[in-house]
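step=predict obj=Phage protein D n=342
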Amino acid sequence: MDNKIRRVEPDVIFQQKNISKSLLPYLESLEIIDNLEGTLDSLKIVLQNKDNVFLRDGWAFKKGDVLSVGIKTLNWETATEGIKEAETGIFYVDERELDKESATIKAISAPLKAKDTGNSKTWGTVTLERLGEEFAKKYELKFQYLVKEKIILNNLTQKKQTDFAFLKKVAEDEGIKLKLTFNKLVLFDEEEFTTRESLVTLDLNKVQDYRIVDKSSEIYDAVQVKRFNVVKLKEEAVIITESELRGKGVGTKNKVLKLTGQGRSGDLKKYALKKLEQANKREAELEITDIGNRNIYAGCIFTIINSGEFNGKYMVSQVIKTLPNFIMKINSYKIKEKEGEK
């Protein structure tokens, strides 16, 4: 990047060496998928396999190899911006497909042994934070707990499940999300992210393409939960309205969300309210395709203008970045205004 023309290229570190310049002559495409939660982040690189170069020693990527990937731009936003860099993730090579024309490398954001091995264990009483720390330490990952409350779990049993699939289910039952990124295990309350400052403003008149999905007809106003009746000595289904869960009276039961679990912390009302909020939060979804922005990531907030009633702040639930042309596809949902906000 030694001229003033607007440019972008991947920044790839492999075996502690920057191999970006070596890969560029062979690069057909590079795709990074950054997910807010639920699904591992992924990397896909397609390379021209001239003379079977990616089967040779020193060029072949092996299963389990670690790639650190970023995006480097030159004068991308303005003519005088200069060189800017943004890291996108650390990935473990999981799949390889090669033929005489191309080599396709697929990688994920978690150590492969965490993805492939089922385990069994029991816990009597443990906090969610401590459980997360235990799994992070097991796989030599950093750990971050972005939850205000202390969640105590009782009588946990893991049966031949992969550790992160088990932890994800336990966390989700308490309304908490899990993400693996940059060799870090993160447990977080998505609701807390909605209070972040907006990172960028996008004009819907200027993006390459967009799609808005209005799901207002799918909003629930009550939940059906199961709880134990100490008089009848049996489990029974009970419908509780959102208004009741918030301590504001009876409320309506026009559309009922049926819950099958109860969570492990024992707080049924808190569990029901969390599940109701999660089900209702995506009342308006927005997909955007546009020129890439190196700073957009899953979990960040952006603002939309010139979209009428859909103006406002949005949470990025997934962003897909592709090179060499650097196009991004954003999946997001509109953040509901709190009571009293305008």
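step=describe
The chain has a mean pLDDT of 90.
step=end
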